[in-house]
Amino acid sequence: MQSQTNNHGTIIVGAGHCGLSMAHELGKAGEDHVVLDSGPAPGSSWRSRWDSLQLFTPAAHDGLPGRRFPARRGDLPMAGAVADYLEAYAEAFGMPIRSSTTATGMDLGADGGFTVHTTDGIFTADRVVVATGVHQAPKIPAFADRISAGTTQLHSSEYRNPQLLPEGPVAVVGFGTSGAQIACELAASREVTLCGKPTAHVPDALIHFAPALYWLLVHRMLTRSTPAGRKVAKEVLAHGAPLIGLTVEDVDSAGVIRAGKIADVRDGVMVAQDGTAIEASTIIWATGYRPDFSWVHGLEVDEAGHPFHDRGISTRVPGLGFMGLPFQYGLTSGIIGGAGRDARYLARRLPHHAAPASPHASGPGANELAPDRD
Length: 374
Prior knowledge:
The protein has eight helices and 19 strands. The chain is an alpha/beta fold and 374 residues long.
């Protein structure tokens, strides 16, 4: 570990699409900054996803600020192509990235400013943007430890391809986009049961036949500035992101067996709400992730583990910002094509020195319903 302290105007933690978007905006403004990332290269987390993972948004809307995604506009890029793109993006703009540098803790100075402790020394800054998103810790139901020891269990983040799974039937728990994609892939070679209630569905016709209208809906209309967006935000935060790119009918056509939500575990076997026992040699938990901001010392979070913020700007800690939070401003805040808007907002509005937040700001986005004027 290096002993010296590295001083910068802004520290960005995370070199995924959110962190790189933020670095682009700060670089364009001539702001001194550094990007800290635990991976060996920008976007490396995409290389650890399952082999067949595709984005559900066409390439036309998968670019970061200043550089389009190198594919035909209607293509749905694979995860490996996304990783290649992010690495090339950082190189093209000469971004100051410190790879293989994990942030282990962050302290707020008594007179403002931040001290970030890492595996490669100490970094200080006037501002910090935490761009790690909320996919930090796999979320697995508490009843998982009651399942038979002979059943293989893995989170969707650990799934790679059907060939690496033990033989026998598979249960995929979680009927979101990831769960549906994995279940359909596995159904080509074995019996698969998909457990859970499907999330709301974005019509495929919008994506395939009216991509401009689709993007207008998900990026411009479904934001916290609109009544429809605020309604969808509540649904997303309570039940997860909508089902995109696959429908319930697609799941049925693939031969996937559908079951309801898991209600209990009896004699080591999962049981659905209708009483059906889900026999499986492997269980894949496509149940999402939980945020983990425990390394940000003293940070207040809500009951879901999310920081209190207004469009990504902390309402409790001056100079602290976030990128990639669920519905940070709009439905697209967590995906590649939506990161640029949030980065522009933070680059312009995140204060270097600010008065403490209003005591009336009591929850995530307490003041975030003001119209987007960017």
